[in-house]
């Protein structure tokens, strides 16, 4: 079947989904995005993603392209037209629109909106697979709390991981502390058994899956602390894992080639992955 | 007349110049660009720009979309089709091409090339106008030597300048030293009469106009030093100016509202502007 994309008011075959070369997303990375998982035909944490989208837009002073109600209709229509009845993802991107090239904000430009869909293998099957990570310096800009399309350093970091035979790269700040992965948040269970993930300030993206897992832990009475941790602390940890919209809760088996714990997926990681899998299944039509 | 753009092998009317939404330039800012001034119908420092383009591509491991010889033919054709017989600019952008969204480099994607043209008011008239700058923290990533389209912080900085009634924002590093402007390099003539601009490492873009002005100064026996300078030093300077492909050599009259020298364009700035104007006029067909 033909994939359908939504581009600035029209539903078009994916292959014909195009934007003008002077869309500021193309010339300036002047835009933001979200990825929303679709599980069994339902959007996972849709409102969390749309809240964050609105925050990112606000921080950059980009006008929302439409109301949230209208945006939800478009997203639902893209899900429907692509027959995402099982698992997959919605990608949506908003930019400051098309205008003659000039760094400053244009006086008159309508925000651009693109929504695409992709089918994915069942999330249930992928969840348990462990992965390896490497550590690299975090060379990104200082506003990582904004989910912008200015992703070139993330691209380079992810490629560096792949070149090293790893799945993800954990980025490390000037103090030797892990910020996050190129497309996921970073977690450890310390040698003392403490569940740790970095607090959400401008140094990292406040992951929707990260927040869901924190809430699930809280609901289950599992203690945690939000603070930075060093690479050394991570290497000495009992367990480590990643969270992200499409990576879900993914065990980390090696860091820079060194086994985490016994080099197998840890028990707390497994528990949280199971809680999150259940969370994904209970998604319904949100109000 | 209709403006013509070159997009991936075709010359099309500017309004129809489009790229796919999965061009990695649009989703990841995974690309680089150059702006080349056209003066009296001739490209200014074409080879300097194409050398830097090749360096940027190499740093990002993006394959050149074509040979330099072929690229020069395309650029020349865009100049011709847009009848840029007087002053204007060529904008060219290369991205890693179109591929299903995934941070890591795609296995098979052809680099994308877009070349557009724009007419500008005569450079001669604009050159002498002085401008004001503000200073802001430099929040960009650490590879500013690569002329990438990951320009969101530059956009925000330029807008901040405009909001403050200034033309440009000078970005300041953690040591209180000016790196560069959002779209130009920064220069001062110190209280002691020393011509200073920051040395070109990963902290700034190695400007083509910056290098031309350094060479012109050298040729005229004007001493200079390439080193960082602080905001305080700039505010106490006799003269200050910007250099850039389309800003040329532009006097800075105020920094954060404080007059530089007597608040008028300085004599050394005027000399260098005149040398650069002459340099622009002597551009010919390069080998």
How is the topology of this model organized?
Two copies of one chain form a homodimer.
Chain A lengths: L3 E4 L2 E4 L4 E3 L3 H5 L2 E9 L2 E2 L2 H15 L7 H14 L6 E8 L16 E8 L3 H4 L4 E7 L14 H12 L4 E5 L5 E4 L3 E5 L5 E3 L10 H12 L5 E2 L4 H5 L3 E6 L3 E8 L2 E2 L7 H15 L6
Parallel strand pairs in A: 8-9, 8-15, 12-13
Antiparallel strand pairs in A: 1-2, 1-7, 4-5, 4-6, 6-7, 9-10, 11-12, 11-14, 14-15, 15-16
Helix pairs in contact in A: 6-8
Q: How would you characterize this protein structure?
A:
The longest helix of chain A is centred in the N-terminal third of the chain and has 15 residues, at 46-60. The first copy, chain A, folds into two domains: 4-119, D-amino Acid Aminotransferase, Chain A, domain 1 (2-Layer Sandwich), CATH 3.30.470.10; 125-283, D-amino Acid Aminotransferase, subunit A, domain 2 (D-amino Acid Aminotransferase, Chain A, domain 2, Alpha-Beta Barrel), CATH 3.20.10.10. Chain A has eight helices and 16 strands. In chain A, 48% of the residues are buried. By secondary structure, the first copy, chain A, is of the alpha+beta class. In chain A, helix 6 (208-219) crosses helix 8. Chain A has helices spanning 24-28, 46-60, 68-81, 123-126, 152-163, 208-219, 231-235, 267-281; strands at residues 4-7, 10-13, 18-20, 31-39, 42-43, 88-95, 112-119, 131-137, 168-172, 178-181, 185-189, 195-197, 225-226, 239-244, 248-255, 258-259. Helices cover 29% and strands 28% of the residues of chain A. In chain A, strands 8, 9, 10, 11, 12, 13, 14, 15 and 16 form a nine-stranded mixed β-sheet that branches. A six-stranded antiparallel β-sheet of chain A has the order 2-1-7-6-4-5. At the A-B interface, strand 3, helix 1, strand 7 and helix 5 of A face strand 3, helix 1, strand 7 and helix 5 of B.
């Amino acid at each position: 079947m033909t994939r359908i994309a939504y581009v600035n008011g029209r539903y078009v075959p994916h292959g014909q989904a195009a934007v003008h070369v002077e869309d500021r997303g193309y010339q300036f990375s002047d835009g933001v995005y979200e990825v929303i998982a679709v599980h069994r035909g339902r959007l996972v944490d849709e409102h969390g993603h749309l809240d964050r989208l609105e925050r990112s837009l606000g921080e950059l002073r980009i006008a929302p392209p439409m109301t949230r109600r209208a945006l939800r209709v478009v997203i639902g229509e893209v899900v429907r037209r692509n027959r995402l009845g099982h698992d997959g993802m919605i990608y949506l991107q908003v930019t400051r629109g098309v205008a003659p090239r000039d760094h400053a904000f244009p006086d008159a430009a309508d925000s651009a909106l693109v929504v695409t869909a992709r089918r994915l293998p069942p999330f249930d099957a992928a969840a348990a697979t462990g992965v390896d990570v490497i550590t690299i310096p975090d060379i990104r800009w200082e506003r990582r709390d904004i989910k912008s399309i200015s992703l070139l350093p993330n691209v380079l970091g992810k490629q560096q991981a792949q070149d090293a035979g790893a799945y993800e790269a954990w980025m490390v700040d000037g103090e030797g502390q892990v910020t996050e992965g190129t497309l996921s948040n970073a977690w450890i269970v310390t040698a003392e058994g403490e569940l740790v993930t970095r607090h959400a300030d401008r140094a990292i993206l406040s992951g929707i899956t990260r927040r869901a897992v924190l809430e699930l832990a809280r609901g289950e009475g599992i203690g945690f602390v939000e603070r930075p941790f060093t690479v050394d602390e991570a290497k000495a940890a009992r367990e480590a894992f990643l969270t992200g919209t499409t990576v879900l809760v993914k065990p980390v088996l090696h860091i820079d080639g060194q086994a985490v714990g016994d080099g197998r997926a840890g028990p707390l990681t497994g528990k949280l992955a199971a809680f999150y899998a259940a969370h994904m299944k209970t998604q319904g039509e949100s109000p």
